[in-house]
Protein 1
Amino acid sequence: MMITSSLFAAFLKCPTKCWLRSQGETGKGNAYSDWRRTQNESYRKAGMRRLVEDFSRDETIISSTEPVNLKTAKWRLGIDLVARTENLESNLQAVERVPSAGRGKPAHFVPFLFVFTNKLTKDGKLLLAFDALVLSEMLERKVSHGKIIHGDAYATLRVRTSALAGEVRKHVIKIDALFSIHTPPDLILNRHCTECEFQARCRQMAIEQDDLSLLAGMKEKEFKKYRSKGIFTVTQLSYTFRPRRRPKRLRDKRERYHHSLKALAIREKKIHIVGSPDMKIEGTPVYLDVEGLPDRDFYYLIGVRVRDGDSVVQHSLWSDSVEDEKKIWDEFLGIIATIENPVLIHYGSFETTFLSRMSERHGGLDDKLPVAPAIGISLNLLSLAFGRIYFPGYSNGLKDAARFLGFDWSEPNISGIQTVIWRTEWEHSRDPSLKHKLTTYNAEDCEALCRVTECLRNCLASQPATSDRRAIDVVNADSLPREKPFISWENKFQLTALEDINRAAYWNYQREKILLKTERRLRIISKTSAQKERVKLPVNKVLSLPPPPRCPRCGSSKFYKHRASKKEVLDVRFGRSGIKRWITRFSFYRYRCPSCHAVFHNSDRAWNRSKFGHNLRALSVYLNIDLRMSQKRAAAFLNEVFGFNFSLDVTNKFKASLAEFYKPTYDGLVRKIVGGRLVHADETKVNLSGYISYVWVFTTIEEAVYVYAPSRDGDLVVNLLKDFKGVLISDFYAAYDSLDCPQQKCLIHLIRDMNNDLLKEPFNEEMKSLVADFAGLVKPMIETVDRFGLKARFLRKHKANVDRFFKRLSRQSYQTDIAAKCKVRLEKNHTRLFTFLDYDGVPWNNNNAEHAVKPFALLRRDFAGITTENGIRDYLILLSVCETCRFKGVSFLEFLLSGAKDIDVYTESRPRPRSRSW
């Protein structure tokens, strides 16, 4: 089907409108659409007359039916020309032919477009670019720019159409795809509906289908997301709302808008409130509504409604022309100045902009200082209610809210866009009835605003009725029942007696209260289990420490025994067939020097100021880090097996002391990784006492290091790897892109994302073709790796296929969003996807770092939310040592027991592994 400029302009507004026009349908019943069409046509004719005056009659040609031969043209200005290619057709309103600048150079053609509005949108520029594209393809020469004549002053804007040609071609391809389906597109209502000739038809269909697009403000991306989940109607969406407790970190942030809660309010026909919004009006409410012409930034009617007790005063300040705008502004300020402590209330940002612009444009606030606070701080009801208060209407507009409260306008189906027509017609005819319609509409807006304000004040103040005495149902969303999947429900009973009976059936209640009164044996068990028997552990070995050679203060060798002391060290001893508790008692004396009166003992002590031996601390850390037993369970194991009486605090101290001991080992691993030729990097979340932090993982083939960071920004990566010159293997997180080193992006991440996108849209042929091409590119590389390993001399042969793939990709133009985004992602990472083809020993995936993340993820379950920043750092030091030992094939427990600090030195000098029977 031929794509005309009319169809292209319709597609820019709505695919459904384009489809209907292509089928020859004509819409009816939209006065604004008819008025706009008339305005465009009259403006085009007037603009054409002004344009023709600059050219002589001999230089002008008019042809509105068939295409003309532009290559041999001699005229300077063409009017109503038709440009046509194989599948494109444009009705050029005017074309200027600029003669060639020299011999052998072709003439230039400049298309014109007439737009009656003062403010231009991108759609107008794209429509001109479409005319230029059709003209360019027909002439087979470049048309680089065009001109738009617009506004009351017939201003001329020069537009570089060549810069928009690519976007125009994308729209043309989408229109081709739309026509090739031979079925109408999915109906989606949007902002353009209010000025579309098919508004009544589409809205009626949407209401009959209860279509999701009835909910104003829903973006197309969110709309498609719901449809992909099988949610097509407003009623279906209403059943998906689930109240959530807001996290502490979001308490000070604004609540996001829930379309599902809006749908629930519509279904139940009740106002729903989220959280505890506060609306304080400390003063006299002044309800403000302004009418204007946004295209001209002209405000011609200010409506002010003041309620003082039972009396209501309505002011309608009318401006005949732009020159009278200052007069009505001064009148408005005068009215506000007479009100005690005025509080301006309005609905939407239009009045906010009005107050700001008029203050800058006409001033007057300095002379009336009491007015300034009211002007500077006005109450926007829409801003207050958005995301917090949901009226049962399809939009958040004033009319939907007021109509729910029983208020209606005298004109049926009135909207603000209709006032533009009335005002324009009044300026031409000065018909008093039109002025009366405008002032009446404005006064009714003020009254509706007053009605909604009183309703909100009553709802938020928990008052049951509005001014019209009609009860309003209000539901607090936080009071709705929360569904907790995977968690057993607590039974809720309507009667207190039933709840008491149910409580008496719980196991703990029966065991500890009822059966104890019945069974004597249970009383004995309960009493004996509550008593903790403390048994003194036998000492395995007693060591006597010799006296020191001299006094540590004065150096005298003459001193005498002062007091006998002893110290017991709890430890374990590893043998060939098991582990044994081992308690050593150290006996020693404190000595006194008669010369300097110092009291001292032998400082050469075997227990190193600790009550617990190194083997015991090593065993506890091994259970906690390597075997992933929580500290509580590790303490329970040591107490049960060895007869100790440890608390959770003791095992935590074991972890902290060994973390301090192995801190030099950890720092050495960091230096070795940064100074190497290859680094794998990844990151994961961790919950610390209610706030989210991150742990970064950096690995090589033989080392692994975990680094804590309070946030996910790239400062840690940049600072840690700023001197790294090897190859970095990572996922597609943007923080890695700032590093100045060769990078290999994980192809597994990319392939999984592609597959997930394909699963979401299994019938997307474009995406399926793109994924198949990429898989065909990567699969031979993997086969080469399987056969020869990661050796560049075997892998470089695939680089030619990579270049061919990206050349083909650059020529492709995808219509579906998911395929287009995939193309952008591939082209953005072009130089980082196949770096492994140029280096020996560089993997094509980030599995090494992902594998290192798993031990931390398992460990995280034991302390998530209950550890501190210092605690997590201790965990990461010991986990880094543990994973490095695993990468090197060394037993983490044996390394801890050895007391060594350098893993490489220990690996080279370790004895032959002993065979154990347990």
Protein 2
Amino acid sequence: MRSKKLYFIVFLACLGLCQSCQKEIALVATETPIHIIPQPNALQYGEGYFSLTEDTQIRANASQKKAIEPVLAKLRRLTGLNLMVRTDEQQPMVSQITLIQNDSLQNEGYTLQINEHEIRIEAHDSAGYLYAMETVLQLLPATIFSTTHLDTSWTLPVLAIQDAPRFQWRGLMLDLSRHFFEKDYILKTIDRLALHKMNVLHLHLVDDQGWRIEIKKYPKLTEVGAWRVDQEDKHWSARLPVKAGDRATYGGFLTQEDLKEIVAYAAARNIEVVPEIEMPAHVSSAIAAYPSLSCFETPIGVPSGSVWPITDIYCAGKESTFTFLEDVLTEVMEIFPSKYIHIGGDEATKTNWKICPHCQQRMKTEQLHEIDQLQSYFIKRIEKFLVAHDRRLIGWDEILEGGLAPEATVMSWRGTKGGQEAAKQGHDVVMSPGSHVYFDHYQGPQNEEPLANGGFSPLSKVYQFDPVVASMTQEEAAHVLGGQANLWAEFIPTTDQSEYMIYPRLAALAEVLWTQPERKDWVDFSTRVKTQFERYKELGINYAESAYLITASSTVDLQRKAVNVALQNEFPDTDIRYVLGDQEIDETAISYHTPIELKETTLLKASRFEDGKPVGRVFVDTIVFHKGVGHQVQYSTPYHKSYPGAGETSLVNTLRGTKNFHDGQWQGWLEDDMEITIDLGPTELLRQVKVGALENQGPDIYFPTAIEVWVAKSGVDFKKVGAIERPFVSSGDAVLKDFVIDFEPTEVRTVKIIATNLKKSPKGTSSWLFIDEIILK
């Protein structure tokens, strides 16, 4: 908010919350901070308060009581109040919560009116009553979300809310295959989805690296497919191939009873659990269990990490493949009553299909002329089976290739293009573009964040997401069911890290999918999310404060030998203050307004301030002006054209690279060694060379295995003054390191540095050498 007071121009909708029947009412002010997420679509403030007391009772019928029971149980546990539910028609009580059926409201919508004696809730369905009560929780102090009983008074402000969701699909996907999460964590996640008024939990139960659902007819799917060789010490993309029969100890699975409990728990909170059973690709775990499912029946092991290209896929030519899949899906549908069954359908490399006699015969029989049409046949056949069981097929946008199944719904992840195309064809769409809602992407500066799956989707970018593309026609937009975030788990080994990647980005997505666009406001949200953080603390959620982290963007003027440093974070009007040198960040720090110009080696510290005090993580960086800055660099081995850094002066421009190797500061050599010379012009007295390097073994970036430093006073007669060797060491993280070579002080005009490339990774792939700066002292 822009001030302590909260001022709202309120638009009360008619009961259906249609935009066409909204009308403006008077400006109302209140001193009470109302921080509801997602933002209600109409809100009017009154004067006074309603108090929850021992006398408060609830008037509801049996179905209404059942709908609000999950929230009611929390209220009773945390307030210690009885909050008895009465179904009789006796006279109104002094303090009551009244639930009323109103069939004119839309699905999941509700009205909430609070006066000094009554909380009055109207809704059309169970979801509406539940969401009204979730709003009631957010009107109470954040301590209501504590895990322990609190002996205090509980008051709610007098107000009126009319609310309903913008979209019917408001989802989160948890990948249980790449790293397995137990039932208890899934149940916690369901509670948190309900808090945010989200209504779909998509469980990714099958992938190459693990089969996570018990299928009783095929026990080897979990006996074999749920376990892989433990290579958790290595980067996901640097893990070594495994063979059939290798000792597999890492993994797990959910029993059918576990999953039925999860489904029932979710249903009580208006959350539909949508299972994903991948096909025809991302199924190495199934083929490891039953090799006959593949084209050539070659035994394989469950991969421990990245698989690319994905060639071990189901054979589309064998009838036994479809018998297996129909058997599996039959058991899946007995567990999950969801309208939708997700079948994946993405990233299938059809190399084997092109030469498999079974697949080629299938193409002849079905008169298919292109290999993509075989995948279309595969998907359409599965869809026909699901439709016969009164279910709907949903898949990633690759299911468009070769022709879309008649009643299929598309989940568009490669941007929004696939979703637009499906909507044009009259198909329903769930938008889930990697650009905005892949929660496995970084949400803050990579140097400050845990290892993630590349990309950059900060809180503010999630808030900018809109499932409806501006160029869509009204008819096409009507096919957009909503949106979904995906948390792929290659780099998410623990529940703590899973929470860190989900929250608070889920809060931003919840508002995107619930609140009408004209009611959204980033400045307003940035205030309300602070209260959401307090709720997260009470719930014990390991949420990220990455949006508050201060980041720096620097530019250099080599002619003037000056660096300008700009500071920012994601929120507007943040009070950022800084100090130069080895000073403490305190109330005397300098208020930041314009870029800071530096002309000498300087330690820079900066922090966000609230109420005159530093809060959060302190930004620290040292800008080093060294003897090589701005001098000529000659390359005996040229850098790779894909990673030129900032060009010929990149290694001597003072600007350092980050763990994001696409940041424009890294020069790269593929298999080649780096050999450069720096001409200092007049001689300089040197005693040390530092070589700044990056290692990230997933994308095959490795530290140099050796570095040599040669110097010449005349520019031609070089002598070696120092060297280091650094044998390969396996690492699962991205690491920045300055390799230091010290030597006796020497008068030098020209410096030659040779850094030796690993050449080949342990997997046999070509290795990169990445260097960002050569520091001469």
Protein 3
Amino acid sequence: MNLDQALMDRITKHSKVVIVVLLLATVAIGAGATQLASSSSTNQFQSDSPEYQANQYITDNFTGVDDNVSSVQVIVRNPDGNVLSRTSLLRSLRFQQEVRTTPAVNRTLVETNSITGISNLVAFAALSQQQADEGTQSGQSTDQSSGSAGQAAAETPSLARQIATLEDMSPREVNRTVAALFGNGDGAASSTALQLMPTGFKPSSTPPTAEARSMLIRQDSTTTQDPTGIPDATVDAQLEIQTVGQQQATDEYITFGQGIVSDEINRSQSESLAMVGPLALLFVMVTLAVAYRDLLDILLGFIGIVAVLVWTFGFMGWADIQFNQIMIAVPVLLIGLSIDYAIHIFMRHREQRADADIPTRKAMGLALGGVGVALIWVTATSVIGFLSNLASALPPIQDFGVVSAFGIVAALAIFGGLIPALKVETDELLEGWGFDRQKRAFGTGGGRLAGFLSLGSKAARRAPVVVVVVALLLTLTAGAAGSQVSTSFQQEDFLAEDPPGWMKDLPEPLAPGEYTVKKNLDYVNENFRPATSQSQVLIRGDIATPAALGRIAAIEEAAVENNVTYVGANGEANVDGPVGTMRAVAAADPNSTFAQLYAANDVDDDGVPEENVTAVLDAFGAAAPPDTPNVLYHDGDGYAAARVIIPTKGTAGASEVTDQTREIAASSANDADVAAIATGSMVVQQVVTADLFDSVIESLVISLVAVFLFLMVAYRITEGSFTLGAVTLLPVALSVAWILGTMYAIGVPFNVLTGTITSLTIGLGVAYSIHVSERYKIELERQGNVWDAMDTAVTGTGGALLGSAATTVGGFGTLAIAILPPLRQFGIITGLTIIYAFLASVLVLPSLLVLWTRYVGTIDAERDERGEGRPAGGDE
């Protein structure tokens, strides 16, 4: 008796002790699950890149940046009417009044300038004109009508007064005020108003008309327990705003905010799982029922799966690892491997019990002795493969690798110890009561299923070289296509489209709700500038020099002319930077002290001061205090940084915005002793996308190399053959290429979920290959004939593999009807991955094993041709 068999016999001999110990371990480890936290924020995927550090520097040092304010964009739309009419503007003011009287909303609004819309600006302009006519013009009202959405005077006219003002005006008076507000697009008031209008709006029309306009609602988001997420109060308030908007009778109110986006993503995820979960569970139960044909074995398998998940989630809690989008792949992996482990153990046990003289306890010991080594190899190679994710620059992917590795070890402990021990105890108990516990193994006993499983063996007997060549040609084609798979890391990837009608007809609680964010976002991107759509250039160094200001001016000019920069209805790009802002402040009041100082030090009259730069910047700070800290940073010793804010088109992708912003940052690299870097949320997002792709490639290469080396060494030690490890791994490499080619063919990109597919393919694929190789090796030693050994391997082990594959594919393939797009894509790709891994192991691997057996020197080639080959010495 070898060491492996002795260890397995101890598990079955001391089954009660094994059960008690592992159940106590399950309770202890599982207790950590109560501390498990979750997060849906994409911020946790940030790597410590220069772009991310620059973005953090801006957040920390530029006081105009306020991470604690959330902006809600409300689009007022009426394709058949004019949203600039008196009645439409009045309806918007009453909408604002209703929003303010909603407690859940009102408590989240910022103290000043919480709502800005065309209706407010028209009311402010009208009040200002009334005061001017009365000879008591108020500078406050003028500031309100001409200031930006981020500014507010000390006293803002109440909504009641704004409503009363418009009610007292005739439609013609409102039209005149609207026309004056927009003017010719040159005034500050016009600039503010035009920022709230769609791109195609023509301010010169008389009277101005439009089918859509927007308003901004600003919320205070400081109260949150999750710094990477959105406060529940903010989400609830935005949903209330959306509800109030949906209740408006005439104009359509489209509400768009990050809280609403977050709610839809979370809701689509939960509703997807609620709908798919029962269907997947039903499919798994039916498939296992067909494979097992025994209720007790099905029950034991489910107990094992639950125990594995309890260990894994408990470990995450103890290790303080959050459950995020990428962790959805972990239960898929562990359930798939658990089913695989269970079926192989149960079916091998049944094969051993086919001999009526072998009792269940001894049969389990023999089964574990036969399949145990394969399970250990599967576990070791899968752990190595997933730990390769530690090379990633993204923390969640590193966590994914660690959690997956622990879960796989847990699966070995549960299905290599607890479940066999429970199986022995329950079978003996039932047999003591007179129940027959002998069952036929799935795939054995002849029939069509055995015929299908033997296709690989028959092809290996007749034309193994042809099989291998065809597989390699297919792999080369798929690999070439797979190299072009795109990578995406955008919040938009998680936005669900409105579900089809048949889903909405499902009974509660399966019927999903409505999903409008994607459609609304597309409309906003096409017609407006989304409130958060921008990139930035951070300039660091000694800013108070002529050369530095010249570099900044060049960056601002390049940004204005760039093709991703958003151009408003007035035909202008509202790029914010220190030079442009200084020019605007000086032009607004040419007689001011600042304007005169600015002009006096602009020696060559190019709009950039060449002398006394520090004094000019100081005067700028005194003349425009709200604007200065938004674009300049003084660290106490001097002006240490500046930034240029670039509004970007909503239709521009993160890759395009990043490339163009980097070109802008590189503009006019003169002799100024400053450094410019492209940054902002979209740029950082694109960096994460690149890191995600790098993680996929690095993980794939490291996994294949590490598993390759491990299997070669392991088989050299146990079987005296280096090459058997390489042969075993080759089908896995083939299936990786096949799945990547399929992703390209059906247009599925790498994202936070599908980016794990190479790890899953190796983790699941190597399991299938190892089981076939190990069974073939055992049967070859036992039977001494290549073809008999191969037939037994592909029908015995192949049957278990088919049961495992069918269960996993069916169960998780149901994710194809999920509402959440990445979950749907993940379900399809995972299902195909398992199919490819199964086909490679039962159709291609037999031919590889036959060729290995012939040409590496383990049997006599001539006797092999007669079907009489016996194993000889191993290769060195």
Protein 4
Amino acid sequence: MAKLQDYRRKRDFSKTREPLPGTDSNTGHRAVFVVQLHHARRRHFDFRLQMDGVLKSWAVPKGPSYDPTVKRLAVEVEDHPLAYAEFEGDIEHGYGKGHVDQFDLGTWATEGSAKAQLRKGHLRFELFGKRLKGGWHLVRGKRKERQRAWFLIKAKDAYAGDVEADDLLDAKMKRSTRKASRQTPAKATAPAPPKRTKPRKSVPSPPKAPRARLARAAAALQGAQPRRIDNGCFKPELARLREQPPTGSGWLHEVKWDGYRLLAAITDGELMLWSRNALPWTERVPDIAQSLRSLGLHSVRLDGELVALDAQGRSDFNGLQQTLAGEAQWPLVYVLFDLPHLEGIDLSRVRLLERKELLQKLLAHAPDHLAFSTHVVGDGDKAFRAATQQRLEGIVSKRVDVPYRAGRGDDWLKIKRLDADEFAIVGYTLPKGSRSGFGSLLLARPDPQDGSGWIYAGRVGTGFSTGQLRELTATVARKGTAKPTFRLDAIDPLLRDARWLKPKAVAEVYYLGIGHNKLLRQASLKTMRTDKIAADLRDSDRDPQASGREKRNTSKRAPTASKGRASPATDMVVTHPDRVVFPDDAITKQDVADYYEHVMEWFLPGVENRPTSVMRCPEGLAASCFFQKHQMNGLKRTGTVKLKEASGTQQTYLYPRDARSVIELVQFGALEFHPWGATIEHPNVADRLVFDLDPAKDVGWERVIDAARFMRRQLKRLGLASFVRTTGGKGLHVVVPLAPPAPWAQAHAFAKIFAEALAHARPGDFIATASMARRRGRIYVDYLRNSRGATSVASYSLRARSGAPVATPLRWSELGGLGSSRQFDMRTVMARLARLRSDPWEGIDTLQQDLRDVVERLGGKTRHRSG
């Protein structure tokens, strides 16, 4: 990447642990900022903002200051790769030599184009981190120097105050500072932080909502009832689509915001955010979470829309999607329109108008990222005309005197400025002329007479941006069949060469009515609804009594995905069972649950009562996936255990304790399971060692098999029996059981020595360092999994990759017939288990081999050589 040429030029990646360009891990997430405390020749803070696929970077010698009158010098330095945001530790050689601590990590936002602001020399932005919050400025200095000098200045806002970066150092950072000052000559080291006579200060907090006064006002409303809420997601009220706004003073009218529905709840002071489909969103929108926490409430439920606002104050859905994907840094706003609960008072039976009045008081002094959805009462036609003149999407009309009712009804109505609706993508036409990728997308709507059927609705070939064309070509218009995947009464001759897909992805399109053939007229893409799947369209927002539409035959309709069904062996309910998890393989969420139930007796012993990280893909592989290892709200069957971290703090870890735990985690979107090499009863000792043989791209599979066999022979020479499994990725795992278990320090030291010995014995085949540059033509022996808190994929765990491969235990004798590490997938591994007469890893749990004996023998040989 041209932007990182200077970064590459200044580093020798065979000597530094700093990340190589191309190992970035932030793709598909919010744009991040990071501040690192760097104990180099001169102690300084490195300030970095994600922008255009890199981290724009400045060195700030004295660190950020919360005092708006203080201008902190910020020297622009070379761009860094995104993976640098996670970097901590020692830079041992060359450029930047010294220790790096992560001072803060979070997301950032700015109004307008960040690049344009930097070109003009003044970037205004907001930070949402643990230590740095609120508005900031980067202003370019006027003097022309070799390294461009900027100034980092705090904006005058609720977070401003007399706080310096050194006031916010934790114990670890202070130890690093003291250590660096002892090791570096005084004349080459920046002055240590000044001693203060006043107590250390923390980040100022914005004013909180008047809790007691609001609680009294809530309790006084007619219909209000004292009630404690749980910490689960609540079901939202949904609107019905109508062509004309209702009339009369019994209705209020709001702007129809074009964003994502977001539900918020604070229970016992703990905040959670969810999408409309109950997917957790707290971590995705730290700016909104920070703003809600600043209200200082103990319990509340809020309903609203997450939007990105343009310069005119209109919601922009594409801007929202780009910001959530890290491609832009638009400020996000949570526009709130309902308040079903406040401070122990259930308001769901209170009139809407009174709920909104109380909500407006709650938000009177709220941060800018929380907004009240204003309304007018009566005269719906006038409200709709105003929305049309302002080119808004439409209005939402609500009865003023009704309670908050979950589900879709006629109390809330939405009226759109243009005809727009959501359709499943069921195919595509081939490109013509200069167009590449595809010509148009073929659309369908759910069949009201058939709960599982679809009706062809037409096609959309305009409204695509260049980026959307490229992305849809890669994700949607790749495969397909020559025959439709659903019943079509007749095929338009123009569609004879079309490629047909199973209904999965959802597009929202504008159109100018419906023609006599019941197909969309002049359809144009509005956006891709990545927050929905085709099954969600069966919960239609259309009025079943609307003119020209048939009423649904509910007696024939199959159960919807949102109802869920119980898993047969565990009685655990799996909601959205038809949600497609592996889009390339048409594997649904229920298929995943059925797989784990089928292999449970083989799978469970590898994860039971072990701290376990799970990879969750709540919306399937087509959306974002992430690791979860700590406790999360909503889990009832899964075990939790408090374990002490290296820093001395305690964290609550997840662990499966039975089959129900596993299926519950699948219900929460878990696909992969990665346990510790230790149990919850004895977390400080390892009962398994795992060596991951990770080949470079140019290493053939036969060499990987040979490497595993060589490793087995070397372990056997040391008196250690080993077992082998595929990883479902590129390589193999060689697993060594330990009984009695070994302390983690001893296990890690042995694993490192053994990996280095392999690399020394066969340097052309093995490498024991993680350097990508030096790995070419060799196999990396990853021993780092053998330390406290590290994990490895479990036997019989699915992998979150196309094809649904499975990490599969083997007999050593089976290696020769193996074609690749991905040979076994969800379907073939079940067939394999049906044929097996015994466990390939039989005896792994009863084998007695003491690592202390091996270490003592190795120590003796080492002393003999040195003598």
